[in-house]
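Support case: thymidine-5'-diphosphate complex. Customer-provided input:
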Amino acid sequence: MRNFETLLITGGCGFIGSNFVRYLLKEAGFQGRVINLDKLTYAGNPHNLSDIERDFSNQYRFVIGDICNGETLQKIYDQNRFDGIIHFAAESHVDRSIYGPAEFIQTNIHGTFSLLECARKNWPAGQGLFHHVSTDEVFGSLGDEGYFTESTAYDPHSPYSASKAASDHLVKAYHHTYGLPITLSNCSNNYGPYHFPEKLIPLMILNALAGKRLPVYGDGRNVRDWLYVEDHCRGIWRIMQNGRPGETYNIGGHSEKTNLDVVHTLCDLLEEAAPAGCNLHLKKQGFAAYRDLLLFVKDRPGHDRRYAIDCRKIEDELGWRPTVSFAEGLKRTIRWYLDHPDWVRTVQSGAYRQWLDQHYGQ
Ligand code: NAD
Ligand code: TYD
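Agent response - structure generated as follows:
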């Protein structure tokens, strides 16, 4: 098993990054130091880790900065001599990449390149480990049958997935060309606490509670494989500790659902946790149930039909398996959003709202 003294985590104030830092320090019992480098874009919220900042002040340090800035990276290396990198930082939302791809190219491609250069220049040959967190969307879209494996050819369709595919190729190239120790994971759709409410699951929960319509793109029959975020975090840490350098691992939840299934299930679980009959927002507008809020809207351009993951490699080699069922994960997620109204208010204000107003008139 690999040990690390100091880990550089990029994008630790985002959804998966903040869950990972919390998992690492609170669940996995990591004893080393964690440096979280995050630029705090609209999706980054330092309050996501305020408990960690308070309870692990001797192990955890937050640095505001841009992964694209080589000088910043060098300074962090000189000060901390990190021996592992877990690279989460990215522009991550497909819809935003359609309306403004430039930031995706900058952060996802140039940013990954800067980090790779930093690792290559500073780590002695064969030392350190660079883990790149990527997505199943690099593989494109499936028909009704079949699964993405680690050897599926890349066929990205959105500016987001194309930028992630480019970064994956760079990471692999640094291994093949310079011998940089790397691992890579391509994971399916995550959900859980601290998920920014522009993505399907948190958007639907919060819209429903506020009595707003639930916009389902196209016919709602697009399929995604859903994984509870903590299971993803365990998978990444398992790869960091035991994965083979140079290898890619697919991570998935064995949980394929159409978007309509997801929205219906969410509405039904919300009826149990916060019945629509007691919700004044719905009452005012004459809606009797959360399901009545569902609205089919214009489809996303280039919308991938189906993603499904074959994750036998990480299961067989590293003994990882998803542990949280979709029903249980959704219950926990709904409970978390109900219990954190202040967090919701914070992230729903400012730049994110302006962007929504501009593009969707909500
Ligand atoms: P997120 O958008 O919630 O968080 C991204 C974080 O990166 C934010 O804190 C943001 O401030 C930071 N960031 C953005 N640009 C930066 C820059 N130039 N320098 C430093 N920090 C910067 O994203 P997420 O959903 O947590 O995704 C994390 C990673 O996991 C991404 O690489 C994404 O491609 C990958 N991934 C996500 C999913 C998913 O379902 N969310 C699935 C598979 C893979
Ligand atoms: P999303 O959460 O944006 O993740 P991704 O595009 O990376 O898979 O979307 C998940 C699915 O939900 C996708 O098929 C698009 C669909 N979707 C809607 O139908 N309505 C929405 O408002 C959003 C945000 C997504």
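The chain has a mean pLDDT of 96.

Case will auto-close in a few days if no follow-up is received.
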